[in-house]
Amino acid sequence: MSLHPVIEKILFTEKQLDNKAKELAKNISEYYKKINNNKPVVLLGLLKGCVPFMANLMRHMTIPVTTEYMVVSSYGNNSVSSKTPQILLDVNQDIFDKHVLVVEDIIDSGNTLDFVQNHLKNRGAKDVKLVTMLNKPDRRETDVKVDWIGENIADYFIVGYGLDYAQRFRNLPYIAKIDLDKFNKYDWENE
Ligand code: IMP
Ligand code: MG
Question: Which residue from 22, 120, 146, 189 has the highest number of Cβ atoms inside 10 Å of its Cβ?
Answer without folding.
Answer: 120
